[in-house]
Each structure stands twice: as structure tokens, then as C-alpha cells.
Design a protein that fits this description.
With about 950 residues, the chain is α/β, with parallel strands linked by helices. The relative contact order is 0.08.
Length: about 950
């Protein structure tokens, strides 16, 4: 494409630097002033002996140092309103990734991390909101700070395109030391590389585009210290003409006639990133965070979705550390730990981690050979989440997680069990036959923990010891390089039946009490006083609370934990009447009751199987770290009260260390994990429990409750004086419960409609579509059925679909799907647009009358041929959607701007659902919703 040279009169630059944050323990950044000065100079038009370099007049560049939040956003708005062509935004300073909502905050000098982060720091989402509906054509954003990769997932900005360039992964920190740039003051390493590339314009080429800058930065990383390789380097994304925006140009002076300056060669493509030392059991030469991105993820992060290049160091996950080696600060980079939590524990764990990282406990030496100064931080902890089923599958494939295949001791291939390691696979050669292509594609559906879950964890905080028992059983069944060491519970939250407060008097009259009544008694009473009221719970495959509840329902129906002697899964599920929950976790379930979608249950009309913590959190209203955004304590009409079924084991929130065979720093990691766990159950317990979870005694038993949840039971809806059952199911019993639950679900019939129009070649759309299809296929069981259609069927027939896998194919019969996934993605594409209305309308007609049908539409929108308005087709689709019993449609939008109004027209109003955003998260959310609507369960011989 043609490079876009900004209009000098209509373009503006907005450069912000914050060298010092007053509170929170952030390191001062000595290089910020030099960064701002030199970048402004590189952007400005400068006369050189043989020509002019630069793109903007000096008066078009605004530089702010240490502004307040208000001034920052006001000045940004003013500059943007003056811009008609290119808006160039740059930030140098500290970046903080909120562990609760994955939001990126750019820290101001007076940012208040503990009390008022939203009101003092600049949220990246607020930057985008400020620029919304502005009339400039192009935008470039450059962020050189910790966690800056979060910004590349922002929406499109600018009428014709944008480019975002970030200096690190969303979970990666940066050193606070700069590099020598001459003339005394340092520049940050990343911005130094940016400025050098701009200053070389005219020698290597006449113009530097954002894509060219990205390529040069990747080349530059090969000379950076090896410990920078894990997550360092440019992370970029774009929309429209973003990659072709010129940020530096050289205009030579007119040469004498006949002596035109020669064209200079274009720089060669950047070479592969340098190898780094493996961590623990990681694959040699590939840092685990980079392997976590996977081929699809690395392509997505490296090539599409961006808006900013942030300069500066940030916080180690949340907090800054010092540069490599013994520099000015005298501290080594903190030890990086990864902590895996469930959806219902992540927020509490994230809050606790943020407090721990800046606490004195994080300065305790990690053994006699620690060697660091006493005031240096020892650990940085990255928190990420995974559902219970994903976690169990991942720990059944620890060899694949660590970059190994097969048995860790003997090298023998691993057994092909559900969740087991993927077989080794390499891309099929062009001449490969169908069998070889299918064999290579088999790896696409095996458990791949790095892609499906995240990086190798050093710690796990589960909802219950039941979850942990399933993990340990899976590890025992599948040989691998990981071992899980339980360290004991961190807190207790009994399981409850949450019912509308208005039912309490009627339930008492029916003979049941808030404590001491069995599940059988509670279910009988609910059937008597509220016939037809749905009893909601999340899926045990994604929710630790739901798993523990299901154990209680099956194992302790009569109030005694009998170990399955009287188990009747089918009978229990029949009595519950409705199991499909509007959320994948218990906290989200209550939030959705407060703000239901079309046809979903609402407060006062449903009961829910959740935890004591979830009920108190909901009733007390919005507070820092609360799960729901209900801004008031619940009133009498919406308030819930907790009933504690007898004999049901409580959530005990166990902490466990994960040890990886061959880790070169195993002793330091164990010490770091133990330090954190000691703090979490001691001086830091209040940060974790949040006044909603019961603490632990020294012996691990439940402590008396303290905190907001038990101050006023009339408001919180929970009781202090209740028996806390500490028994738990072993791994075998837990697996049996999950299997029996799965068998009680009806099989589903799924039809996938996959967009293969030419526009799908843009950015990471194909990778996102493949990830979604792969994840959804993994959720199907042998009794489910599916089919795959691609559209447009051909260039001549954009309104038709092509059958890749026929409808009715058993869920565990995946040969054709595997072969299609193994084919070259670009060879699948049709060189025309897609008429989605007709394709979807035909699918709705074909699935009418099926038992438990579901359509999954993967699309980037209707881009039918010019001259075809599609009006009649849209009307026909609307009529089909309006029929009674019309099939539900789940939509995955692979567009950068997400679920637009045009995309949402494809949703079935009776069962709407559209997913978009960060590729791996959107694909995962879609797959989880598919799992809620099929039976699931892997075949005996694995996927």
C-alpha cells in the first residue's frame, strides 16, 4: 500500500512523561526528560546539510511533564480537536495493570494506588473515550511502560486507521534504568531504539512507516540483554492504513540536473528474536511468555490490534523493580512468579498480590545466597485465571506446558487421554496426503496449556481442596515434569442456597431453617413455596463453587457427606429443573441476576447455588474489589438470604506450589512461594479475605468470622454462627461427580458457520476464527453432534455456504474438521465478500426442529458485492429469527471494533450472544458458552 505522509498543517503530537510517582513505591525514572526532548526533536522538521527531516512544525508538538489526571485529559482533548490528519500520542512513565479488570493505568505524579486509582491515574480506556468521535483521520500511539501490551487491545481510533506500538507484553515489566545516548543523560532502551530509527531516515530510506519502525525495533532486540527477551520488544496492532503512516521522512534538497539522488534499499526483514535461557522446564531457547502467545497469538500481538507505544518502566506486574545487574538502584530484577486462580478467586487474589508486592514481606531474602540489598523487592507475581476444567486438563499435559512431549523420564509418548499432552506435530508439507494432514491437525485439538490457559504457574490458589485433588489425580495419571505441593487453606467460605429475602418466612413455615436443613429438605421446601422457581448454578467445568456444590448435592443430600453411597445424579438434576447459568462463575451469576438479558431470570424470581462470600458481596453493594457494580446495598426486594445446607463441604481456598522438574532456580522459587503464602495467611490475610471470607487458625482450621459480612446479618444476608464443614472429596470422587453431571445433560447439535471471505485475511482474523473453532470443538462430547459450513461457498455464489463437515457428525468424530484446520488458512479464502444474511437464514431453516440446536456464527460482517443492498435478505432473516423455537445463535465478531450494530443483527433475539475483543479471551468465552449448551465429555480415547 502507499505510504501516508501526514499533512503538516493538520497533524499534531502530544507527548507526556511522568518521571516520578509520589506514592506506591515506584522507582524514579531518570530518562523521561531526555526521552521527551529527543522524541520531540525527531518529530520536528529539521534542516540537514542535504535535506529536511521530520514531519511536524515545532509548534505542532505539545509536551507535558508530570501533569495531573485532569490536565492530561483536557490537553489531550484540546490537541485532538485541533487535529484533522495525524494525532501522535506518546507516554513515558510507569504503567500499572489492574489485576481486577486487566485495565491499563498510566500513572500520574499523584496517582493514589490504594484509595483512588480511577480518580488520579489515567486509564487507557479513558484516553480512548476522550478521543471518541473526534474528526482526525489517523492516529499513532506509543507506550514505553510496564504492561503496555494491554493497550494494543483497544478499539479502532481515527477515521482511516491507527497504529498502536507497545514496549512489552500485557504482563511484562521493564527495568527502570536507561541506556547511554550520549551527552550525559540516558534514554530508555525502547525509546532510544525508536529515536535512532527515526534519525536514520534519509540514510537507509526516504520514509519510516509504523510498520517499518516495528520491524527495525524487532531487529534491535537481538542486541538487548538476554533477560530482556522474555516479553520485551515491540507489540503492535493496527486498523486501516495504520501500518503505512509515516512518522519520519527525509526530503532531499534539489539535486543539480542529471544528478538525482539514488534510491536507497529497503531494510531487510527482521530476523527471529534472540534465544533466551529457558526457565525451569521451558523449551530451550523460547521464553515461556513468548511460547504462551503460541503461533496464532504471536502473530496477533505482533501484527494487528494496536494503538500506542509507551515509554518508561512500570511496575513489576504492579510494582517497579530495578534494572538488570547492579545499576544505579542497586537491585536485581525481582523473581517472576505466575499465579493461577479460578474465576471466583482471581479478584481477591489480585488485590492481595498488589498489597504483597509493596509490603515489607516482599523484601525478605530468598535464602542464604540471596545477595540483594535489604530494601529490594524480591518477587513480582503475575495473576491469571482459568476455569476448573481447563486447569485439570492443563495439569494432565504438563509435558506440553513445559515444551516437552511424552513421558518426562523415559521419553515414551504420553497416553492419549482426555486433557493429555498433544502429540508432536509439524506443519504438513504441500505434498502431504490426507492421513498426514489429519495427523498434523490432531495437535490442534489436544490440550495445549500455553495457548488454552496461560504460562506455567508457580502457584495455584483454587476454590477448594476438591479442585486441587482433581489436579493431583490428573498429574498422577499423566507423567510429566510438574509436581503440585499443597500448602494448606487460606480461608473458608461455606456454600449456600441464596434465595430472595421475601421467601424466608414461607420457608420457615415449610419447616426448613437457615442452618441444619439438608439438601433434600431445602429442595422439598422450595418446591412447595416457590414452584417453578429456577435454581441456578454455574457449570462445574468452569466454576469451583459449582463443582463443590455438585459434590454436596450428590454426596450429602441427606446432610451427611457419605462418599457416594447414596448418589443419584439424575434425580438431583431433575429436581433442580434448570442448570444453564448466565455466567461461568458464581459471582457473575448474581451480577447477571441484577442486570438480566432478554429472557434471563431476574432478582426475586430465581434462587442460586453460590458461596457465602458471593451473597455478602452482592448484598453489601459496590465497594473496592466487589464482584458486581451495584452501586447501593441491596434493598429488601433485591436482597438475598443464605441457607446453609447441612453436610456440604465449604470452599477452603487452598494454596499450592507447582514445582517444575529441572528448574535452575527451584530453591529461590520455593522460598518466594512460601514467603507469599505465609504473608497471605498472616499479616496479609485481611487483604485477601476482604471481610467476606472466614480466616484460618494456625492449624489450618476455620477461624471465627470477622469483617463486614457478619456485622449486620440483616444487610449482608449471611450468618456468623454456622458449622463450617472442612471435609472434602478425593480426586476420584470429584472426577466421578463431574462425569455423572455431564451424563445428565442432553446432547447438543451445533452448526458452525465460518467466514472465509477475502476480508478475513486482514490482521489476526483467521487466527481468532481458528482458535474459536478449535476451542469449541474441544467442548463437544461423543453424544453431541456438529457440522461446519464455510461461506461464501464460491466467488460466484457469495450467498451460499460450502459444507466442510456434514451436520450430524458425532462430536468425537473430528477427522474432517482436523483436515480442514490443517489446511493453509489463506488457501481456504474466497476472493469475494460474504452475504451473511442468506447463509444464516438458510442455517436457521435447516436446524428448525432439531433437539437442542445451536448455531455458532464466526464473521467479520456482511460484505456482499457492491450494488446488492441485502435489504430483502435481511427481512427474510428477521422473519426466520422471529419464529417460535428459532435456533439460538452465538456470534463471534473478529472485527477490531467488535460487536457493532451490524454484527448484532445476526444474533437471535431469543438467545442473543456476541463475543469480541482480545482474540484468545473472546474465543475462550465463546467456547465456554458452547460448553453450556452441549453435553460435553471427551471420548475414551481422547480428542
Amino acid at each position: 500500500m502507499t505510504a501516508h505522509v501526514p499533512d503538516r498543517k493538520g497533524s499534531r503530537a502530544f507527548l507526556v512523561g511522568v518521571p516520578h510517582v509520589a506514592d506506591g513505591g515506584f522507582e524514579p525514572l531518570d530518562y523521561v526528560h531526555r526521552n521527551l526532548r529527543d522524541l520531540a526533536s525527531a518529530l520536528a522538521e529539521t534542516e540537514l546539510p542535504d535535506g529536511t527531516r521530520g514531519i511536524l512544525p515545532e509548534d505542532a508538538i505539545t509536551v507535558l511533564t508530570s501533569p495531573s489526571q485532569g490536565k492530561w485529559l483536557r490537553e489531550l482533548k484540546r490537541v485532538a480537536e485541533d487535529t484533522t490528519d495525524l494525532l501522535f500520542v506518546y507516554f513515558a512513565g510507569h504503567g500499572y495493570r489492574d489485576p481486577f479488570d486487566n485495565q491499563l493505568y498510566l500513572m500520574t505524579k499523584d496517582a493514589d494506588l490504594d484509595v483512588n486509582l480511577v480518580g488520579t491515574a489515567v486509564a487507557w480506556s479513558h484516553v480512548l473515550k476522550t478521543l471518541d468521535r473526534m474528526h482526525f483521520r489517523h492516529a499513532v500511539f506509543i507506550l514505553d511502560c510496564c504492561n503496555s501490551g494491554v493497550a494494543i487491545d483497544g478499539r479502532a481510533v481515527g477515521q482511516s486507521g491507527h497504529y498502536t506500538l507497545a514496549s512489552s507484553l500485557p504482563t511484562r515489566t521493564q527495568p527502570s534504568e536507561g541506556v547511554d545516548a550520549g551527552d550525559g543523560d540516558p534514554r530508555s532502551r525502547f525509546t532510544d531504539a525508536v529515536i535512532r530509527a527515526m534519525e536514520e531516515t534519509g540514510r537507509d530510506s526516504r520514509a519510516l512507516t509504523m510498520q517499518g519502525l516495528y520491524d527495525r525495533l524487532y531487529r534491535a532486540t537481538k542486541d538487548w540483554p538476554v533477560n530482556f527477551g522474555d516479553g520485551w520488544g515491540p507489540k503492535g496492532g493496527s486498523s486501516g492504513v495504520g501500518p503505512d503512516i509515516v512518522i519520519s521522512r527525509f526530503v532531499p534538497h534539489l539535486a543539480p540536473p542529471g544528478r538525482l539522488p539514488p534510491e536507497l534499499p529497503t531494510p531487510p526483514p527482521w530476523p527471529p528474536a534472540p534465544a533466551t535461557e529457558p526457565h525451569g522446564g521451558d523449551e530451550p531457547g523460547r521464553p515461556r511468555l513468548l511460547r504462551w502467545l503460541g503461533e496464532g497469538r504471536r502473530a496477533a500481538v505482533a501484527g494487528a490490534l494496536a494503538l500506542l507505544l509507551t515509554v518508561g518502566t512500570g511496575v513489576y506486574l504492579a510494582w517497579p523493580g530495578s534494572g538488570p545487574g547492579h545499576g544505579a538502584a542497586g537491585c536485581l530484577p525481582p523473581l517472576e512468579l505466575r499465579l493461577m486462580a479460578g474465576p471466583e478467586t482471581r479478584a481477591a487474589v489480585g488485590h492481595a498480590v498488589a498489597a504483597y508486592l509493596r509490603s515489607p514481606a516482599n523484601r525478605v531474602p530468598l535464602g542464604p545466597d540471596d545477595g540483594a540489598r535489604g530494601d529490594c523487592r524480591r518477587t513480582n507475581i503475575t495473576v491469571y485465571e482459568a476455569g476448573t476444567g481447563e486447569t485439570v486438563d492443563a495439569f494432565g499435559a504438563t509435558g506440553a506446558w513445559a515444551g516437552k512431549r511424552g513421558d518426562a523420564e523415559t521419553g515414551a509418548p504420553a497416553p492419549a487421554v482426555s486433557g493429555g499432552p498433544c502429540p508432536s506435530a509439524s506443519p504438513a508439507p504441500q505434498s502431504a496426503g490426507a492421513d498426514e494432514a489429519e495427523g498434523n491437525a490432531e495437535a490442534a485439538l489436544c490440550a495445549d496449556p500455553l495457548q488454552d490457559v496461560g504460562p506455567q504457574p508457580d502457584l495455584v490458589v483454587s476454590g477448594s481442596s476438591t479442585e486441587l485433588a482433581r489436579i493431583q489425580r490428573q498429574i498422577a495419571r499423566n507423567h510429566g515434569p510438574a509436581r503440585v505441593v499443597p500448602l494448606g487453606p487460606a480461608g473458608y467460605s461455606p456454600l449456600v442456597l441464596a434465595v430472595p429475602a421475601a421467601l424466608e418466612k414461607k420457608l420457615t413455615e415449610a419447616g426448613v431453617h437457615r442452618t441444619g436443613s439438608s439438601w433434600d429438605d431445602l429442595l422439598d421446601a422450595m418446591a412447595e413455596v416457590a414452584p417453578g422457581m429456577p435454581l441456578l448454578r454455574p457449570d462445574p467445568d468452569t466454576s469451583g463453587t459449582a463443582l463443590q456444590h455438585t459434590v454436596g448435592l450428590y454426596e450429602a443430600r441427606d446432610g451427611r457427606l457419605t462418599g457416594g453411597a447414596d448418589r443419584d445424579a439424575e434425580g438431583v438434576e431433575r429436581r433442580l429443573r434448570q442448570r444453564t447459568a448466565p455466567a461461568s462463575d458464581a459471582d457473575g451469576l448474581l451480577c447477571d441476576l441484577d442486570d438480566p438479558g432478554p429472557g434471563e431470570p431476574r432478582l426475586g424470581k430465581a434462587a442460586a447455588l453460590v458461596s457465602e462470600k458471593a451473597v455478602a458481596d452482592f448484598n453489601l453493594g459496590s465497594r473496592p474489589g466487589s464482584a458486581c457494580d451495584n452501586s447501593r446495598p441491596a434493598d429488601e426486594q433485591s436482597r438475598l438470604v443464605a441457607y446453609y445446607p447441612a453436610g456440604v463441604p465449604a470452599l477452603d481456598l487452598p494454596v499450592a506450589e507447582v514445582r517444575w522438574k529441572g528448574a535452575r532456580d527451584a530453591d529461590r522459587r520455593t522460598a518466594a512461594v512460601r514467603n507469599f503464602r505465609t504473608w497471605l495467611t498472616g499479616t496479609g490475610s485481611g487483604r485477601f479475605l476482604r471481610g467476606l471470607v472466614r480466616g484460618t487458625r494456625a492449624d489450618g482450621r476455620p477461624a471465627p468470622p470477622r469483617g463486614d459480612a457478619w456485622k449486620d446479618p440483616e444487610i449482608s444476608g449471611v450468618l456468623a454462627d454456622v458449622p463450617v464443614v472442612t471435609g472434602t472429596a478425593d480426586g476420584r470422587t470429584a472426577d466421578t461427580v463431574v462425569e455423572e453431571y455431564t451424563q445428565t445433560r442432553e446432547p447438543g447439535q451445533v452448526l458452525f458457520l465460518v467466514d472465509v471471505s477475502w476480508s478475513m485475511a486482514e490482521g489476526d482474523k483467521l487466527a481468532m476464527a481458528d482458535a474459536a473453532l478449535r476451542g469449541s470443538l474441544q467442548r463437544l462430547g461423543p453424544r453431541d453432534s456438529y457440522g461446519i459450513r464455510t461461506y461464501p461457498g464460491s466467488a460466484r455464489h457469495p450467498d451460499r455456504a460450502r459444507t466442510e463437515v456434514p451436520r450430524g457428525t458425532p462430536g468425537d468424530s473430528r477427522a474432517k474438521a482436523l483436515a480442514w484446520l490443517a489446511s493453509s488458512p489463506r488457501k481456504r479464502l474466497v476472493t469475494k465478500g460474504a452475504a451473511v444474511h442468506e447463509v444464516l437464514e438458510r442455517a436457521l431453516r435447516d436446524t428448525r426442529g432439531d433437539r437442542r440446536p445451536l448455531i455458532v456464527l464466526i464473521t467479520d460482517g456482511d460484505d456482499r458485492p457492491l450494488g446488492d443492498s441485502g435489504g430483502a435478505a435481511a427481512q427474510a432473516l428477521g422473519r426466520e429469527q422471529g419464529r417460535d423455537g428459532s435456533t439460538g445463535v452465538l456470534v463471534l465478531s473478529v472485527r477490531l471494533d467488535g460487536c457493532t450494530a451490524g454484527i448484532r443483527r445476526f444474533e437471535n433475539p431469543a438467545s442473543a450472544g456476541c463475543y469480541a475483543g482480545r482474540p484468545e479471551k473472546a474465543a475462550e468465552a465463546l467456547a465456554e458458552q458452547v460448553a453450556n449448551q452441549v453435553q460435553g465429555g471427551a471420548s475414551d480415547d481422547g480428542p
